[in-house]
Amino acid sequence: MNWLTNKVLPKIRQLTTTKDTPDNLWVKCSSCGQMLYHADLMADMNVCSHCDHHMRIGPKDRFKMLFDDDSYDVIELPEVQVDPLKFRDSRKYTDRLRDARNKTSDKDAMIVAHGKLGGNKAVIGVQNFNFMGGSLGMAVGEAIVAASKLAILQKAPLILFTSAGGARMQEGILSLMQMPRTTVAVQRLKEARLPFIVVLTDPTTGGVTASYAMLGDIQIAEPGALICFAGPRVIEETIREKLPEGFQRSEFLLEKGMLDMVIHRKEMKSTLASIIDLIANQKQSMLPAEDVVDESPEVIEEAVTEEVEGSELPK
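The structure corresponding to this sequence follows.
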């Protein structure tokens, strides 16, 4: 019996067992339920080929789709105090942060990079919903402030891709303070006469919608994105009425005048490149020679970590 179990059976299993199928070979669309081959989905920019549902994507995929030749530099963002309120609900805030960082390999919910988009300089910030729901905390606030400073330094447009469930409750009032801070950072861009373009993706809600997400010179959204302050379920329970079909989705907001355009993900780069050409390229070509920008890493790091004289942001 030992000879059969120890010698024969293992060899039979070795001959008849096939290699395991990778877990991520197929992806189920959260909208229509269709199973999508992973390689085909990536080629379609994470857009369902059956129902055109735009799936959520992270900063790295977004940068790859936008920057010319997939060439860009991610900036080092200022450090913030971890768990300033020593917050704990069912779990410690520090444990939630550690899990989110292990899951995404990012320090926090927003990443900022700069490079060329359609041949023009651009600074792009992307909020990652996979990092604690993309929630607005001190780190995201610092990221937007740093992105604003870098855009001013490079005389480049700032493009923000928003995706968040709102403010981060584990940081309390410190999280809510990022709403006025980011508003002041956007105002700096306007004073420097630089374009601020916001692309709202699914979902953009809460304090993010109530601050920088609605302050763009041009407001763009991806198809079907949920954009609101309070979600439709909360509103229905409050007013006890059935909401209209597609309420708070990007197409509904476009119809009501809250957005300038709804752009398919496959057309996003060409659309943004055209906008930058129209708004910024002519202005940059008119700059005198002495206004040439030093873009060395040392200058960039100094610019994003220091306050601009005469325009300090609230702490």
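The chain has a mean pLDDT of 88.
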